[in-house]
Amino acid sequence: MKSKTLIFIGLPMIAVTYGLARFSYGLMLPYLRESLNISQSMAGLIASSAYLSYIFAIILAMIYMQKVGPRMIILIAGGTAVVGMAIISMANSGIVLAIGLFIAGLSSGFASPPYADAVKKWIEVNKQSQTNTWVNSGTSLGTAITGIVVIFMVSDWRLTYIIFTVLAILVWMFNYKYIPKEKNTNVNNKAQKIRVKKSELIEATPLIFASTLLGVAMAGYWTFSRDLVSGMAGVPEFIVQGFWIIIGLAGILGGFAGSISTKIGLTSSYWLGVIVIGSASLLLGLYSSAIPIALSAIAFGSSYIFVCGILILWGINIFKEDPSIGVGISYLLLTVGQLIGAALGGMIAEAQSYETMFIIFGLITLAALIFKPKKLVESIETDEQSKAL
């Protein structure tokens, strides 16, 4: 399989599963709340369903990858995105919306692991890093696309999700056509066993706490930032409408996590990322004018993928014998934090205000500075980093 072909089908699938199926909920929340009469706390609990399903899916994908092969997992990812967004488009209550978002959230958990496996199996070594980078850039692209579509669709969220569903069907069809059918692969007859040493888990304790704390703040931003900004009287309409696009485009900067780490070290990179992403939340909580809001979107968009990359490198540095375990633990605990953050954020916002919530979450983010990697990464495993970005 050619590298360009895998990029052609993989990049849009990542864009669909992450940008459209998973993260678009936060963008559409102002319209969903108004239409379905959803409270802030209920909105947070519904958002948590997508993070919960992501945890289930990524664990299943890691366990059964070698049993069923990447093609099957990829098609399941696309299928759950289609079904989930179709249900969302027809939702007439918070319960139906939660069901749709739960199914849609499965797609992102299923999507990332099989593409990394496909790159290793089918792409020549000298093109693997480039292929992984392009495929996983779909997260930022999908986020920007959702913002652009909503500008044209204004508040018609049902039609917007119908459009997203149609796009997901087209992407699924391309993947069905071009992903090779494996006749004689290294597919095992039983699920892969995950083995972790006790000493590695002890060393990973700071990573576990840091990932969880950062996940809390990230979920608050993805879920509630657009709802807050859309209600600010002092923010120009072009900033409100372009808020999600700014986040998506700024995400491209996050791809430099590996190169920056080699220059300033993993610990300094971690501190930098945490401070920037914490500042993004604090800016939303403290200011309600155009420049701070735009700076907040840029800070979050760039630091989200950057921090995720740093956490992955941290995990790889701990689990040297099986780097994929480091990737999995980093992302699973990050998602656990996001699950907690989405529910907790809605409760705080309803009891106090969105501004209070973002100030608290910004401080929680900065609290993660007390944890740090014990030692620097001597060699960056770009392919392993790309698995979950």
Automatic annotation (TrEMBL):
GO cellular component: plasma membrane
Keyword Transmembrane set for record: yes
Molecular function (Gene Ontology), one example: transmembrane transporter activity
Transmembrane segments annotated in the record for this chain: 45-65, 72-89, 95-112, 133-153, 159-179, 200-222, 238-258, 270-287, 293-316, 328-348, 354-371
Stretches assigned to the Major facilitator superfamily (MFS) profile domain: 5-380
InterPro entries: MFS, MFS_dom, MFS_Efflux_Transporters, MFS_trans_sf
The keyword Lipid biosynthesis belongs to this UniProt entry's keyword annotation: no
Bilayer topology annotation: Multi-pass membrane protein
Localization, UniProt: Cell membrane
Keywords: Cell membrane, Membrane, Transmembrane, Transmembrane helix, Transport
Protein name, as recorded: MFS family arabinose efflux permease
Organism: Oceanobacillus polygoni
